[in-house]
Write a structure and sequence with these properties.
single chain, mainly alpha, 0% strand
Length: 170
């Protein structure tokens, strides 16, 4: 039964990660049917799950950014006809994978992830303007990560810092 319990929690974490990524981001063209919206969401969950398998051991930042880009590229290729601006934004992909990794890390299933979910709470705490939902490139993402690294306590990781501020702000 233990395996079934974990499977349930895993599916809930995937669903929550996708929902949190999509909730404030305009993803779809306005005429997109519910059928295609559900297909995209399912594909995103599958990509989050498959990429998370590589985080059971340490992943460096470049590989992590490559994973985010691969998610964007795969979703763009498969769903460009229903996506606003015909592509899946980097900011939405990073939120999904980083949040899912945060759950797995908190459950002790993976090592500490290299980054944290970048969202409005994180941007506000770091004193960074803009909207994570509009972040559209690896370069923009890396600039934000570098700015956050400069304000966190010495010896504290991005994941630890975000967990602390999230708990404080919610």
């Amino acid at each position: 039964m233990r395996k079934e319990k974990y499977k349930f929690i895993q599916k809930e974490c995937l669903a929550n990660s996708v929902s949190a990524s999509f909730q404030r981001a305009k993803i779809y063209e306005s005429n997109t049917s519910e059928k295609f919206r559900l297909k995209l969401r399912k594909c995103f969950k599958n990509l989050l799950f498959s990429h998370s398998e590589t985080y059971k051991s340490h992943i460096n930042e470049e590989t992590h950014c490559d994973n985010i880009q691969q998610i964007c590229d795969e979703l763009t290729k498969a769903y460009k006809n229903i996506l606003i601006d015909r592509h899946f934004r980097y900011g939405v992909a990073q939120k999904g994978i980083n949040l899912y990794l945060k759950y797995l890390w908190c459950f002790g299933k993976i090592e500490e992830p290299p980054h944290c979910p970048i969202d409005s709470i994180v941007l506000r705490e770091a004193g960074i303007g803009g909207a994570w939902t509009k972040m559209d490139s690896r370069d923009e993402y890396k600039i934000i990560i570098d700015k956050i690294k400069k304000i966190i306590k010495s010896g504290q990781s991005l994941a630890e810092w975000e967990l602390e501020i999230w708990n404080k702000n919610t």
